[in-house]
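Action item from last meeting closed. Structure (160 res):
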């Protein structure tokens, strides 16, 4: 179970700085106290970067190029546009079941951060349609009409 997220390090650092400032202010500005505080701060920042897991693998890497097209949706549980698009994406997933893989990734999160950097995503919801070989075929941002999804998917998967 992962109890940290992308904000854990900065929040802990901010709390440490505030706590250190309060201690130094209460006791007076002694050089020794300030030096100890700076050393502890440097060790904690270094430890956070040392133990921070690298975001190199994503669920998208596991399904891309496996002979089946993939629709990637980067969404946020707090985004009204994402909530509005959920039924549309659910219908697409059901209608193209077995022929199209739909992958939803929540933002913020380590996986979504990595994907946002890799594919230069700036807004949610963002959709990227990959062909069976893993190449990007189409992308869209915001609310997209269901007929557009079907047209783009049909280009990759002609009706039988």
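Sequence:
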């Amino acid at each position: 179970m992962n109890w940290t997220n992308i904000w854990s390090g900065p929040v802990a650092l901010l709390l440490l700085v505030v706590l250190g400032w309060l201690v130094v202010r209460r006791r007076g500005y002694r050089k020794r106290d300030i030096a100890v505080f700076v050393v502890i701060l440097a060790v904690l920042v270094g430890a956070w970067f040392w133990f921070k897991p690298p975001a190199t693998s994503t669920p998208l890497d596991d399904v891309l190029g496996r002979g089946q097209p993939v629709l990637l949706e980067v969404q946020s549980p707090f985004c009204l546009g994402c909530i509005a698009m959920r039924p549309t994406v659910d219908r697409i997933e059901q209608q193209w079941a077995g022929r199209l893989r739909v992958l939803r990734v929540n933002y913020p999160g380590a996986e979504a951060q990595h994907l946002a950097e890799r594919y230069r995503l700036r807004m949610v919801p963002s959709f990227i349609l990959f062909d069976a070989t893993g190449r990007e075929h189409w992308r869209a941002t915001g609310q997209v009409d269901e007929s557009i999804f079907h047209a783009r998917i049909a280009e990759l998967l002609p009706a039988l």
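Note appended to the action item: The chain has a mean pLDDT of 81.
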